[in-house]
């Protein structure tokens, strides 16, 4: 049922002409005593017009969100590493989440980051922007991985201070301003550095360790205790990187946020990510896209649809050719000659 309320229209944009209620088609139809079928047709047309307008607005919002999401996707190949990544947002409308990832080729090696901001949806987007923007600058500038993490910490602190000032309520008259801070905001961060020879080093702040798929095995890249997430506590004075072995040609690294491990089915059971990755390691072809497809298929089947938390997955595969073995000619000893002139050319001139 459509209700009509008499009175002037809403004020907003200036109108060139005054509103005349007699110009309303439904009002004229009611005054002329049209049959109910005609009124129903007019009402249906108005409802369809309103519905189409809302649908266009929803599509526009999703297009903007999808564009922002795809800007987070790294290129498909970075300095000999094939990359595949995906982000699933718990917000079904905005499709923007609190997960972040990036991989860059720098003069210091390939550097990658993956992180998880507290909360999900568009509300976490400013923190994602602050951390990613800092990483994209620091990854090129800082010679060591600890310097990159320090830059991320400073960017996070600056972001929290700006948010605290924006969200601080105005003090009452005669009352002093309180020291309000956004104390509950934090972000987990994992930094990786992959050198040209395949050596992998990492710094971890409260994030799940990646999994290494080598041969037919899938195991955590490291088991060291991580530092606290960025935000609540300062980083320690010393930040030694964690050596994680070597990424050999054909090996795969699977980076993920905790939304993948914490996803539950209808009975409350957690998603068995290690078992799914072990199965993906035995499949052929074992490309980043195939591994990603295997995980997403199992994850969708496990949760029965959309996830309840944001999920990010990034898969890296070493496509660099294996180092060439030294030639046998370079290793063979110099042949011994019996020509005395070859042994001492100054004593035996030609």
Q: What do you see in this structure?
A:
The protein has a 6-stranded antiparallel β-sheet. Mean pLDDT is 78; it is low at 1-17, 63-72, 172-181 and 336-350. The protein is of the alpha+beta class and 350 residues long. The protein has helices at 25-32, 36-70, 125-141, 145-167, 258-262, 273-281, 288-303, 328-331, 340-343; strands at 77-78, 81-88, 99-106, 109-117, 187-194, 199-205, 211-214, 217-220, 242-246, 252-256, 311-318. The chain has a domain at 72-165 and 185-318: PPM-type phosphatase domain (Phosphatase 2c, domain 1, 4-Layer Sandwich). Helix 3 (125-141) runs antiparallel to helix 4 and helix 6 runs antiparallel to helix 7 (288-303). The radius of gyration is 31 Å and the shape is globular. The longest helix is centred in the first third of the chain and has 35 residues, at 36-70.
List keywords for this structure.
protein serine/threonine phosphatase activity; alpha+beta; Phosphatase 2c, domain 1; 350 residues; 9 helices; six-stranded antiparallel sheet; five-stranded antiparallel sheet; Bact_Sigma-Reg; PPM-type_phosphatase-like_dom; 11 strands; disordered C terminus; 35% helix; globular; hydrolase
């Amino acid at each position: 049922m459509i209700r009509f309320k008499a009175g002037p229209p809403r004020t907003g944009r200036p109108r060139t002409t005054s509103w005349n209620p007699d110009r309303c088609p439904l009002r004229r139809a009611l005054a002329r005593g049209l049959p109910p079928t005609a009124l129903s047709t007019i009402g249906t047309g108005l409802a369809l017009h309103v519905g189409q307008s809302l649908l266009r607005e929803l599509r526009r919002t999703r297009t903007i969100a999808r564009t922002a999401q795809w800007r987070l996707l790294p290129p498909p190949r970075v300095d000999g590493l094939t990359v595949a990544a995906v982000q699933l947002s718990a917000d079904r409308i905005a499709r923007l989440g609190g997960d972040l990832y990036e991989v860059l080729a720098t003069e210091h090696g390939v550097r990658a980051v993956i992180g998880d901001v507290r909360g999900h949806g568009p509300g976490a987007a400013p923190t994602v922007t602050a951390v990613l923007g800092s990483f994209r600058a620091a990854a090129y500038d800082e010679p060591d991985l600890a310097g990159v993490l320090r830059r991320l910490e400073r960017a996070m602190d600056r972001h929290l201070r700006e948010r605290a000032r924006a969200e601080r309520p105005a003090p009452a008259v005669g009352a002093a301003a309180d020291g309000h801070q956004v104390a509950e905001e934090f972000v987990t961060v994992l930094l990786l550095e992959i050198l040209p020879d395949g050596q992998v080093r990492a710094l971890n702040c409260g994030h799940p360790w990646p999994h290494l798929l080598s041969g037919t095995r899938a195991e955590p890249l490291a088991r060291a205790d991580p530092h606290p997430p960025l935000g609540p506590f300062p980083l320690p004075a010393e930040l030694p990187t964690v050596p994680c072995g070597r990424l050999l040609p054909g090996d795969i690294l699977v980076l993920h946020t905790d939304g993948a491990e914490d996803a539950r089915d209808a009975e409350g059971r957690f998603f068995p990510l290690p078992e799914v990755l072990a199965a993906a390691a035995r499949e052929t072809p074992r490309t980043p896209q195939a591994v990603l497809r295997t995980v997403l298929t199992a994850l969708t089947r496990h949760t029965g649809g959309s996830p309840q938390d944001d999920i990010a997955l990034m898969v890296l595969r070493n496509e660099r050719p294996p180092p060439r073995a030294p030639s046998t000619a370079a290793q063979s000893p110099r042949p011994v000659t019996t020509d005395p002139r070859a042994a001492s050319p100054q004593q035996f001139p030609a």
